């Protein structure tokens, strides 16, 4: 099993968009995929509720839903046997111990970053937290950055590339700013399920991300019981 955590301190950078599209890409490739929603805003679960039963199945888990008393109800969070790929969508603003708890459940951490000065600055701090507080470098977790909603190759974008290079972190892909993601979100589908010729460019942008994830898929001997506690 491979478990991918999509996380950044900031809201609105594309965590849910990437998590849902990733789950969808896996499901379309024939993997048994699960989407775990840790965010009480429940955007990933809402997306899944819009998804037609005729589409490749994605198992959704509303992890944010806790029974009275605050304990995790394990029956709610059990994954179907044979689950091969898990993506975790989490809320913004996760720091400290909570960050550590999330990264412990993951084999791969994907950090979406918007190419604006404020976002790049916030993301840089977040990545430093990941490396220092969550100590992901000292574990088997791989970290990659996804530049989201990119337009032209702007100067600020080059600054992000330099920052990542200095930390030896890969910029796994860039996803352009397009209404295709908005339309897909409204229909409970992913970019990989859009046959409109305009989505072709977007599918291409996912290839390097999917390849990068595949490179690490064999190393992750995920323990499902660690996903929800
Ligand atoms: N590449 C993109 N192009 C256009 N719109 C996008 C893109 N990525 C995200 N969005 C839109 O930006 C908004 C915030 O994205 P979302 O994935 O919900 O962020 P987060 O989960 O980090 O808060 C949503 O309305 C989403 O449809
Ligand atoms: Mg979200």
Bound molecules: adenosine-5'-diphosphate, magnesium ion
β-strand number:
7
How much strand? 15-25%
Mind describing the biggest β-sheet? 7 strands, parallel
Order of helices and strands: EHEHEHEHEHEHEHH
Distance between the termini: 18 Å
CATH class: Alpha Beta
Helix content: 25-40%
The main sheet orders its strands as 3-2-4-1-5-6-7
Mean of all residue-level pLDDT scores: 88
What characteristics describe this protein?
single chain; 229 residues; Rossmann fold; 7-stranded parallel beta sheet; binds adenosine-5'-diphosphate; 40% helix; binds magnesium ion; alpha/beta
Protein architecture, described:
It is a single chain. By secondary structure, the chain is an alpha/beta fold. The protein has one domain: P-loop containing nucleotide triphosphate hydrolases (Rossmann fold, 3-Layer(aba) Sandwich), CATH 3.40.50.300. The protein is 40% helix and 18% strand. It is built from 8 helices and 7 strands, in the order βαβαβαβαβαβαβαα. The chain has helices at residues 15-28, 43-50, 74-77, 96-104, 117-132, 155-167, 179-187, 200-217; strands spanning 2-6, 33-37, 58-62, 85-89, 108-113, 142-150, 171-176. Helix 1 packs parallel to helix 2 (43-50). The longest helix is centred in the last third of the chain and has 18 residues, at 200-217. Mean pLDDT is 88; it is low at 219-226. Bound molecules: adenosine-5'-diphosphate and magnesium ion. The site of adenosine-5'-diphosphate has 16 residues, from helix 1, strand 6 and helix 7.
